[in-house]
Amino acid sequence: MSASRIPIPEKGTDWPALRERLVAKGARDVDWRRARTAVYVFHAGDDVLQVAKDAYALYSSENALGPMAFPSLQSMEAEVVGMGLSLLRAPEGAAGSMTSGGTESILLAVKACRDEAASRGADTNGAEIVIPRSAHPAFDKAAHYLGLRTVRVPVAADLRADVAAMAAALTPRTLMIVGSAPCFPYGLVDPIAALSELAQERGVWLHVDACVGGWFIPFARRNGVAVEDFDFSLPGVRSISADLHKYGYAAKGASTVFHRSEAQWRHQIFTFDDWPAGGMTTPTMAGTRPGGAIAAAWAVLNYLGVDGYREKARLVCETRAKLCDAIRAMPGMLVHGDPRLGLMSYGSTQHDVFAIWGRLVRRGWFSGLTTEPRGVHQMLSPAHAGVADEYLADLRDAIAEVSASGETAKDTKAQYA
Ligand SMILES: Cc1ncc(COP(=O)(O)O)c(C=O)c1O
Question: I need a surface site. Which of 10, 230, 339, 406 has the fewest CB within 10 A?
Answer without folding.
Answer: 10
